C-alpha cells in the first residue's frame, strides 16, 4: 500500500483541482481545469468530466480525446525514468504547464491558469515575477540564493 501513496496523493490533488470551479453565476460552457479533467457548466450546475484511460483534455475541441490526437501539452509524453517523484515545469510550453512523475512513470500534464507559470520551488502556478528562472524572472526566489 505504501508504494501507492504518492499516486493516491497526486490523484487526489488532480481531483481537488477539478472541483475548484463553481458554476453558480458563470456562463454556460466548458472550463479547462487540467489535462485529465474539465468542468462543464450548464445553468449554474457543475459537472466534472474526467478523461479516462488513454485520453486527455483537448483545449481546442473542449473534450477528452485519445492522447495521440491531442495537441501539446496535454497530448505530450515526458520521460520520467531518471526523475524523482514530483512535479516538473514543462519548458516546451514556457512553463505554462507542468508534468507529474511517480516511480519513474509519467502521469500527465497539468495546466497553469492564463498568465501564470509553474514555480517549482513553491509547487504552484505563479506570476513570473515571483518564480525563479528558468520559468520566472525572480533570481532571489530560489532556495539557497
Structural class: mainly beta
Across the major sheet, the strand order is 1-2-3
Parts with pLDDT < 50 across at least 5 consecutive residues: 4-9, 11-19
What portion of the residues fall into strands of 2 or more residues? 25-35%
Tally the structural domains. 1
Mean pLDDT metric:
84
Distance between the termini: 38 Å
Estimated radius of gyration? 16 Å
Range of helix content: under 10%
Please write the string of helix (H) and strand (E) elements: HEEEEEEEEEE
**Number of helical elements:** 1
Strand runs, count: 10
Rough outline = globular
State the major sheet: 3 strands, antiparallel
Structure summary:
By secondary structure, the chain is mainly beta.
Describe the SSE topology:
Blueprint: H1 5-18, E1 29-34, E2 37-42, E3 45-50, E4 55-58, E5 63-66, E6 86-89, E7 97-102, E8 105-111, E9 117-119, E10 124-126
Antiparallel strand pairs: 1-2, 2-3, 4-5, 6-7, 7-8, 9-10
Care to describe what's here?
- The chain contains one helix and ten strands.
- It has 145 residues and is mainly beta.
- It has one domain (2-111).
- The strands form four sheets. Strands 1-2-3 form a three-stranded antiparallel beta sheet. A three-stranded antiparallel beta sheet has the order 6-7-8, with helices on one face.
- β9 (117-119) and β10 (124-126) form a beta hairpin.
